[in-house]
Design brief:
By secondary structure, the protein is α/β, with parallel strands linked by helices. The chain has a single domain, classed as Flavin prenyltransferase-like (Rossmann fold, 3-Layer(aba) Sandwich). Helices cover 36% and strands 19% of the residues. The chain is built from eight helices and eight strands; from the N terminus they run βαβαααβααβαβββαβ. The protein is globular.
Length: 192
């Protein structure tokens, strides 16, 4: 990962942020240059999992960079080839839907659109309560799109939340390396 320029975009699956921060720290520890990108909700919403301000502080502390949090700030990602790879983690059902429909109205979705413009790889780490419901169509559409790769997923609570799936964040680095080679890490769905 030495010198790899990774954009790391966070959308609002707030319960996963502690795991995500650990993964960002691991990437930085492996000498990747990580640029945080935040959705509008991640920038503004305080939840029982923490405040938006504390998350921003932690991201700056880990990466040494101010997060990109506006459409204007993320638009140059593609034209200026600022990143080698872009990760969206967590990637919510709403973000999946926007990406599948080509809607780029948030910093995260515009970052993806801008990055794909130069045919560079994007890794999605899905975290949504409706992955096996309404979002499955979008997962399927995006899985078949060129230059989009997904972190393998697992049902996080098949009894209480039978449609819910979450990326196995421990496979993020492997997925990034595979995506840089143009391959999807398998298996795509992991058994509990």
């Amino acid at each position: 990962m030495d010198g790899l320029r990774i954009g790391f975009a966070l959308s609002g699956s707030f319960c996963t942020f502690d795991r995500i921060l650990d993964e960002i720290q691991s990437l930085v520890d492996n000498k990747a240059e990580v640029t945080p990108i935040l959705s509008f909700n991640v920038c503004a919403v305080d939840t029982r999992f923490g405040t938006a301000a504390k998350l921003r502080e932690k991201l700056i502390e880990i990466t040494g960079k101010q997060p990109l949090d506006t459409l204007v700030k993320v638009e140059p990602i593609g034209p200026k080839a600022l990143l080698d790879i872009l990760v969206v983690a967590p990637c919510t059902g709403s973000t999946l839907g926007r990406l599948a429909c080509g809607i780029s109205d948030t910093p995260v979705t515009l970052a993806v659109k801008s990055h794909l413009r130069c045919l560079r790889p994007v890794v999605l780490a899905v975290s949504t309560n409706d992955a096996l419901g309404a979002s499955m169509r979008n997962i399927g559409l995006l899985k078949n799109q060129k230059n989009i790769y997904m972190v393998p997923m697992i049902q996080d609570d098949p009894i209480k939340k039978p449609n819910s799936m979450m990326a196995d964040f421990t496979l993020l680095k492997k997925t990034i390396l595979c995506a840089l080679e143009g391959t999807q890490l398998q298996p795509f769905f992991i058994r509990n």
